[in-house]
Amino acid sequence: MADQFSAAIRWHGDYLELLDQRKLPAEEQWLPCHSSEQVSDAIRQMVVRGAPAIGISAAYGIALAARALGERASLAALAADFDALAASRPTAVNLFWALDSMRRCGQSLSGNALVEALSAHACHIHADDVARNRAIGTHGAALLPVGKAVYTHCNTGALATGGHGTALGIIRSAHEQGTLAHVYAGETRPWLQGARLTAWELQRDGIPVTLVVDSCAGHLMARGDVGAVIVGADRITANGDTANKIGTYGLAVLARHHGIPFIVAAPCSTIDLSLASGDAIAIEERDSAEITALAGQPVAAPGVDAFNPAFDVTPASLVTAIVTERGVIREPDDRALGEHMRD
Ligand code: MRU
Fold first, then answer.
1. Which contiguous run of DSSP H or E holds residue 242?
2. Sign of the C-alpha dihedral, residues 130, 135, 136, 138?
3. What is the CA radius of gyration of the chain?
4. Please, what's the b/e burial string for 272-293 (b: 16 or more CB within 10 A of its CB; e: otherwise)?
5. Where does the pLDDT of residue 7 fall: very low under 50, low under 70, confident under 90, or very high at 90 and above?
6. In the chain, which end has fewer C-beta atoms inside a 10 angstrom radius, N or C?
7. What is the DSSP string of 162-204?
8. 279 in catalytic set
9. Whose C-alpha lies nearest to ligand 1, atom 10?
């Protein structure tokens, strides 16, 4: 499998290992998972995070559950595992996409034949995601401004996917081609995926990166320091509305105000044509303790009310282009997405 650098998911045939992203960059600790319950917990607790990586992990979770059943394996016997994995996080559609794909692959099989088919299919979903990201990188690199910095949010790299990354994959591909000037990484409160993960990944790849607090984005754009904003997605609806890490919408508004292209990168497995618009996307709300404390230390008055949505929705009207493995959708809307997704 390509791009094993800092890839966060390792399949060993009879168990799964996840790089514990809660501990990065201080420690590189791998968490072994031997059951689908352990995988659901790892997704819920953000040991593994990022839309494609969540989907891949869930697929391996089903493979583990099937192995445990052996000759008794059937889709009916796996129903509770499918349900528990589906309930682990609500917003990233890649989770549901991967589970559906596993279910389809297992149709009409049972016993050891099903076990083998599900293991092979999980590996296929994993390898296929890397290939999709490579293609996204190639299509997207051509869109980045030559000689000007790009601004990115959250972590969309090898850690968030099967490898290479989506928005960060484009940044990696542009760097490989020698056209990337610089990257600004927003720290991404409250989990600090930008500070802990993106800056770490880029630094290890020798890609020039400057870390900024989220509230610095407008200042950088006003100074003329940003040539494009590039982000990933957790779910893109039929009209091109895009759910992504909280703070993405604000960046899109800022980019429009400053006349800067706002680019979304995601595999087609992130596109959900079953939802008409972003209003229908379930937005995960996480524990308020994630914002009232930092690394276990309280940073707010005890008992203060706090609101902690993990994602927001950027309307398609603010998106300059969506890049998938199939190519570039400019000025996304129902028609453009429908055409792009046609088989
Ligand atoms: O809460 P997270 O860390 O799972 O959120 C991740 C994001 O919002 C990413 O931008 C998105 O999943 C795309 S990852 C290629």
1. strand 242-245
2. positive
3. 19
4. beebeebeebebbebeeeebbe
5. confident
6. C
7. SSS-SHHHHHHHHHHHT----EEEE--TTTTHIIIIIHHHHHH
8. no
9. 232
Residue-wise pLDDT for 57-69, tens only, equals 999 999 999 999 9
Contact criterion met (CB below 8 Å) for 263 and 140: yes
Per the listing, tokens 């790892």 go with 42
Kindly list the structural domains of the chain, giving each domain's residue range(s) and its CATH number in brackets, ordered by start.
6-134 (1.20.120.420), 138-341 (3.40.50.10470)
Residue 153 CA, closest ligand 1 atom number: 10
Identify residue 186 by its one-letter amino acid code. Answer: G
Per the structure block, which two tokens stand in for 180?
A: 């990337």
Give the pTM.
0.96
Locate the ligand 1 atom nearest the alpha carbon of residue 231 and give its number: 10
Sheet with 30-33, edge to edge strand ranges: 9-11, 16-19, 30-33
